Amino acid sequence: SNNENEENMNKKPAAVSDCDTQLPIFSYVHGRPNISAVPGTAGLIAVLISWDVKQVVYAPTCVDAFEVEFQQVGGGRLSWSAWSAMVGCAPTREPAQREEFSCRRRLGGEHCRTRMRFRVMPHNSRSSSMIAGQTILRIKVVVIGCNRWTSHTLLTTSYVSRW
Fold this sequence. Notes:
By secondary structure, this protein is mainly β. The chain has one helix at 2-11, and strands at 25-26, 34-40, 43-52, 56-58, 65-74, 84-85, 100-106, 114-123, 139-146, 152-160. The protein is built from one helix and ten strands. A hairpin with a 5-residue loop joins strand 9 and strand 10 (152-160).
């Protein structure tokens, strides 16, 4: 089970000297980003995506950067868009003791009646064995609603276990 896998990962944390071979892995149980509303004067103006290094259960000391990506569907779009990197959100772990991270995704009229999903990926630039897909934080889905004056509201949030 995922819980047993995490317990085994936690028994032997990666030493910084092992970072040339270690891949950071987010928790299957607690590894999901937090999405919260950023209110403005006329409703929701952005969503805040936040996470913590403590959510990385394997090789957390090897994480030196993160990447945030998103997709959306709805608002006239019938299928999920391709994953797009949030270019303005690629935080590095400087100083190395930094543990909490967050990014904002601004909302406009095109986001009315859409679903957006976000994922966070940790990076270990020292590793020579990066394998895509193994290090993704569980995906969080949010539904954005608008009233007739186009003020945004965060309607629901849910999680996808793996993507």
